[in-house]
Backbone:
């Protein structure tokens, strides 16, 4: 009964979150700052603003000092920062509105992800999905951790399974973006393997 109530509450909060104050997720830190006056929201907002302004300046003003690959990595970092913060904001609002009696493990999973602990992130996400198999945010975070650890097939399987979940409609864009990142990362990994194998083959042919 307790788990069933948690699933029902989570689904209800998610349906409200699709159209209720969605703009709070547009800027990192805005949700806790606006709704609870938390100083952590100020720190997150200022950190993102500093990162965003730095990347903008290096792109538009000092573009000749930074190579295109570095600029791409910088913008991916900005996008990853924003996406992770948006997920955390939605999750924080849902937990705050639900007032559930079970610990929300998503912030722990997100913290592990931001530290690059892919295995620990997967373990937390698996625990979340045991509680609620329709947890869209946990599935997205799991797929991203699987992609980061090079498990592209597992990430693709997680995302394709997520598409069939009832609450996935609100996250269609994010799911498609993560699928695209998985395909790009897998292709880049294959190119890297091919390029690293080429010198070995040349040495063998020369011998």
Residues:
């Amino acid at each position: 009964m307790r788990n069933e109530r948690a699933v029902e509450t989570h689904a209800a909060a998610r349906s409200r979150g699709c159209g209720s104050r969605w703009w709070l997720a547009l800027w990192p830190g805005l949700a806790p700052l606006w709704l609870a006056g938390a100083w952590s929201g100020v720190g997150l907002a200022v950190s993102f603003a500093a990162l965003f302004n730095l990347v903008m300046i290096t792109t538009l003003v000092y573009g000749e000092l930074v190579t295109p690959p570095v600029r791409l990595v910088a913008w991916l970092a900005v996008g990853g920062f924003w996406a992770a913060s948006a997920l955390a904001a939605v999750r924080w609002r849902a937990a705050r509105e639900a007032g559930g009696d079970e610990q929300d493990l998503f912030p722990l999973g997100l913290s592990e992800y931001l530290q690059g602990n892919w295995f620990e992130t997967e373990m937390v996400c698996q625990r979340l999905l045991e509680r609620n198999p329709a947890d869209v945010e946990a599935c997205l975070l799991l797929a991203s951790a699987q992609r980061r650890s090079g498990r592209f097939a597992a990430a693709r399987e997680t995302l394709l399974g997520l598409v069939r979940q009832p609450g996935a409609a609100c996250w269609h864009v994010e799911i498609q973006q993560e699928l695209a990142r998985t395909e790009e990362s897998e292709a880049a990994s294959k190119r890297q393997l091919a390029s690293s194998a080429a010198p070995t083959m040349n040495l063998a042919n020369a011998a």
